[in-house]
Request: fold
Amino acid sequence: MKILLASDCYTYQINGVSRVVRSLSRGLCAMGHDVRVLAPANSFKSFRNGADYYIKSVPALYYKGERFSLNLWDPLIRELTEWEPDIIHLHSEGGVALLTDRIRKKTGTPLVETVHTNYPCYIFGEKWDTPPARVIARAVGGFVYKRADCIIAPSERVRSFPYIEPLESRTTVIPNGIDPEYWKQPVSGEERASLFNSLRFVDNGHTMITVSRLGKEKHIQEILKALPRIAAKMPDIQFVIVGDGPIKGKLEALCKSLCIAEHVRFAGMISPERVRSYLSMGDVFVSASNCEVHSIAYLEAMACGLPLAVKEDLSIRGVVENGKHGFVFRDGDELVSSVLRILLDGGLRERMRENAFLAAEAFSEKKCVERTEALYTEVLSQMMKVGHYEERHD
Reply:
């Protein structure tokens, strides 16, 4: 099967969407499929790197750090059109969606689209679920997603999104997947020591860590505001923030105003290959985000054996079992108590660590890829039945 994966987030960005696309590409290739990936380049220059097609782009004005490409007549788009994919799997709603639209119009290829982001949450903030916001989201989402022959929801929560509700009949739930065996691999003591030294921290068993885009929707400021109370009970507490984003400066300023700069280190953007090493530094993974769809970062932390302290949200149902491999908090007080319980009770932390390993097994990359491949086959079969698509490779 010839499969085109398309995303506005790929190798030049470190986030959950880019990791899902890489995982899916790797898994489908291992199953013998011909897979190519379409994404914006990180400059105004198009190029091809093996099976990865990067189209020249400009910085997106709507969100810092994103890039936007609208070069519909790029020679690489023409090359992908002539390749005639059997399936296009879109992982974005931005500029790359318009690029795939051009390919689809020329080839008639069926489209599968995965919902990775709760966009109303990004746009409207805490008011994203109010009636006016839902009306707007429903109208815009219906326009954006109606082109898809099938929609993949990584979690049941997505079905409740106002822009997916009208299209629920063509929506299938397939949870994101990771490779648990990869994340279980131990990191050498020397490498861990080197990371602690580079951040001017010590390996004291009291290290909180998060891997996240530094955007306001991730609510990292809630963790920072709780940190003084944690430090009052645990003076040697350490917090490592891995990632970058538009509010990094504001978070650094908040650390200074709260007088907690000595407890916090910003590791910045790192390569995907180094995420496991940084997670090995942590004793508890923390997140106050309430805009997740199906967090890859949570799954990776669990597979590394990290207990979780995460904010209550529909997206974690079926992922985080409160009290088993982590704690689910609702406010700052519960965040403080959750972190302290995990860090002060070695026995509890070890039990949660073992349970986290086991819980991560349910979200294997292999299962995700197999279910996605089966969906592709089903979509192609349905399209041929109704006469909208002819098999090209008789």
The domain at 2-177+364-385 is CATH 3.40.50.2000 (Rossmann fold).
